[in-house]
# Entry
Amino acid sequence: MLRRDLMKMALVAGLSFTGGSAFAADMPAPFDKPEEVKIALVRYLSTGDFFQSYLSGVEKQAEALGVDLRVFDSRQDAALQADMVDQAIALGVDGIVIQHGLTESMKPAAQRAVDAGIKVVAFDVNVENDAIPQVEQSDYMLGKLALEQAIKDNGDTFTAGYVYVPGIAPLDRRDVAWKEVKKDNPGIKEAAMFGTLDNPIANSVANQARSVLQANPTINVVFAPYDEFAKGVKIAVDEAGLSQDIKIYSADVSTADISAMREPDSAWAATVATNPAVVGEVSVRTLALMLAGEDPGKQVIVPPTLITQDFLNEQDVRNMGDLGEKMPQFQHADVSVAEWIPLPKR
Amino acid sequence: MNKNALDYAIKYGFLLLLGGLALFFSLYASGFASPRSAVFILQSVAITGILALGVTCTLVVGGFDLSIGSVATSALMLSAYTMVILEQSAFVAVAVCLLMGALVGLVNGLLIVKMRVPDLLATLGMMFLLIGLQRIPTQGNSIATGMSLEDGSVAEGTFSAAFLWLGRHRFDLFLDRLVPVPVVVFLLIALLIWLFLGYTRHGRLMYAIGSNERAAGLVGTNVHRYKIVAYMISGMLASVGGILLAARLGRGDIASGNNLLLDSVAAALIGFAVLGAARPNAFGTAAGALFVGILLQGLTMMNAPYYMQDFVKGAVLVAALVFTFYLSSRRGGRRTA
# Structure
C-alpha cells in the first residue's frame, strides 16, 4: 500500500514536471508512453445516474493511467453499437470496453475487434468469447445480501411484496436470489408481485404499491431490488401511513437514496450496492492489465456492499462522497489491481 | 340496430362501462371498494389528468402537443434545480416552472402559426429539445440534496416544506388526511377548463377554429392568437403536472416523460367517446383519465403484470376510438339520410 502511495505521489510529481514521461519508465509497455495508448468505451445504455457514474469511473481511471479515452454512445441502438465497435477498430484503438448490449449484435462485433488484434473487455454483456473477460457486478449477490439482511431483521417468517419486471437482465439475476431464498425459507410468503418501468419509474411504482398495500394489508416486508422501485414503494408506504409497519430492502444506492433512507421513521431499512464508478474503474484496469500482457482472468467480479439505515445514521452519511469515506470497501474494489497501475485520486 | 338504442349506447355506453368496471373490481379485488382506494385512484390519475386537460385544449383548436411529457419532466428538474442548487423558495420554484411552461407553449405556438411548422413536428422537436435541455445543467444526473456539484461543493438546498405540501399534504374529508393536494388541483383545473371551453365565448371560438379554421378567421376570430394561447395553456398545465410530480417524489428525477405523454393523450382521446361528444372536451378527458386509473388500480390489486395493463390500456383506447369515429359517424349518417 505504502509503495503504491509513494508511486502515486511520484507520478503526480512526474506529471507536473515533465508531462508524465519521467516515471513512466516503471510502467510496462505500452504504458511507458501512455499518451499513445488509445482506448474506446462503447456504450449501449447511458441515461441515468448509474451509467453517468460508471462513465465517471472510466474517465477517472483512464486519466490516472494517462491514456486517450474515446467514448461512443449508441443510446440503446444495438445495430449502431456494433457499428461503433467497427468505428473504434477503424480508429486504430488499442483496447475497447463494451458496456452493456445484446449478445446477438455484440458477439460478431467483438470478434472482429479481437481479430484486429484489439484487447476487449465486456461489462455486463455476454459476448461468448474466450479472449474477452467479463466484468460484472454480481447481481445475484446484490439480491442475496439484501434478503439475508431482511431475514436477520424480520426472522424467517414474513409476508412479502416483491417488485419485479421480468426480461431485464440484472433484475432477472436478482430474481434468482429471491426464488432461492423463498425456497429455503417456507415461512416467507409472497403476497403480491408488481412492478413497472413506466417513467418516472418511482411515481408509477408508487401508484401500484398503493393498491397492492391496500389489497394486502398483511405485507410487512417489501423486496424491491432496484432503487427506483424502492423509492416508489417508500412513497406509497409514507402515503399510507405505514412507515412503522413495513420494511423495504433494495439494491443500488445514490445520494437521493441515502437521504430517503435517513428520513425519520423511514421504511427503507437496507440496500446493497456496487459503486458504479468503481465498476467503471475496474473495467479500465482490467483492460490495462490485458494491454500490458497480463491475465485478469475470465471473470472479474466487483463485490457488492450492504448498506443499512442504522449504519448511515450512526456515521452521519449524507451523500455518496461520505459513503465512500465511511465505507472504504465501497470506494475502491481490490479487483484487477497491479503495482504499476495508478489509482484515481480520491 | 334501433336508432334510439344506438344513440343511447353512444351517449351513455362509456359511463356505464366505467360504472360496471368499478362494480366488477369492488366484487373481485379485495380492498378496492373503500374511500381510501377511491382517493388514490384519483391521485394516480391526477398528474396525467392535468396533462391530458392541456392536450385537450390543443386538440380543441385542431392542434396537438407532443411536448407535454417533456415539459412536465423539465418542470420537475427545474423546480428541483431552483430549490436544491439555487436554494430558492417554493414560491420562486413554482413561478419559474409556470413561466417555463408558458414560454415553451409560446414558442410552440409561434413555430406553428408564424413559422408554419406542422403542429406534430414542431412539438416533436420541442420534446427532444427539452429532454436534452433538462439534463444539461446537471450533466445527466438526478438532483437531490447532498449531491456533489461540478465545482466539488455539495448542494445544500432542500425541497422546502411548502413545496412538498403541494404533493403530499392531505385534506380531511370524512376521514382524516384523505384527499391529497394534487387531486384537488386536478379537479379544480378540470372544472375551470370545462367551464372555459364549454361556456365562454373564447372557448367556443376555439372549438370553431378547430372545426373550420378558415371560416372562423373569416368571421373575424384572431385564429393565431387563440392557437398560441391554447399551446400556452397546454405548456402551463404540463408544468403544473411536473411541479406536483416533483413535490411527490421529493427530488429531481431525470425521466423522458414519454409515458406521461402517452397516458395523457390516451385519456384525452378516450374522452372523445364520453357522452357521445365525438370531440375533445374537458369532462370527457377527466372521465377518460379516471377510466384508465380505475382499470390499472383494479388490475394491480388482482396481481396482473405490467404488460397485461398495457394491453388493457390499448384495448380500451381502441374501443373508445371505435365509439367515437364509427358509431358517431353512423349516427351522423342516419341523421342526414
Notes: Residues 262 and 309 of chain A are 6 Å apart (CA to CA). Chain A touches chain B at residues 46-49, 52, 165-166, 192-204, 206-208, 210-212, 214-217, 231, 235, 238-239, 241, 254-256, 258-260, 318-321 (CB under 8 Å).
